[in-house]
Amino acid sequence: MNAILDTRTRHLLTVDALEVLYREGILAPDERVELIEGEIFDMPPSGPPHNGLVNAITKLLVRAAGDDAIVQCQGTVRLGDRSLVMPDFALLRPGPDYNAALPGPADVLLLIEVADSSASFDRNTKAQLYARHGVGEYWLIDINRRTVERYSEASEAGYRVRHEAYPGDRISPLAWPSLLIEVSSLLPA
């Protein structure tokens, strides 16, 4: 039996079109969605232990970054014309306007996702997206596996280097090799 090819056209959104949906009230201002390669994805609601861990990591990163970076917690990052994401953390290069415009890959020092139910999506879809857009370093904090996956050396095909760190290990962002972070401080107790 011959397979019938689906020739229907998909209409993908741009970041500008998504902003119109918000502005016109089609999407509520508090509706949490991400635009990934033109498709809108609902973001799952977060709860414990995710929220508590995000609060603890925010405190740790703000103290550690000082004036060397801007710690953006659950804010928006623009990745080209068809992707607008909301990672749990973006460590951004400091600038005189504190990145008043949406930060893009050139502004990002490190993106971090904290995952419980979204680990597979963050590990596959998000990691590929971040690498394709040139985000130099990405960490996935997997609550269930109790690991921090560190991705670096972005390429069009994905990240070339993946390293797993466990409680008892220490890791540091590529932007601050002298900043050693206990993996256990990034995970729930």
Structure report:
With 189 residues, the protein is of the alpha+beta class. The chain has one domain: tt1808, chain A (Alpha-Beta Complex). Strand 8 and strand 9 form a beta hairpin.
Oligomer: single chain
Helix content: 10-25%
Number of domains: 1
Report the biggest beta sheet as strand number plus sense, adding barrel if it closes: 6 strands, mixed
Give the N-terminus to C-terminus distance in angstroms: 56 Å
Kindly report the name of the CATH homologous superfamily. Answer: tt1808, chain A
Give the averaged pLDDT, no decimals.
92
Residue windows where pLDDT falls under 50 for at least 5 positions: none
Query: Which structural class do the helices and strands define?
Result: alpha+beta
Keywords for this entry:
single chain; 189 residues; tt1808, chain A; alpha+beta
Describe what is shown at a glance.
The chain has three helices and twelve strands.
Task: Give the secondary structure arrangement, pairings included.
Elements: H1 15-23, E1 33-36, E2 39-42, H2 50-65, E3 70-73, E4 77-78, E5 84-85, E6 89-92, E7 108-115, H3 119-132, E8 137-142, E9 147-155, E10 158-165, E11 170-171, E12 181-182
Parallel strand pairs: 7-8
Antiparallel strand pairs: 1-2, 3-6, 4-5, 6-7, 8-9, 9-10, 11-12
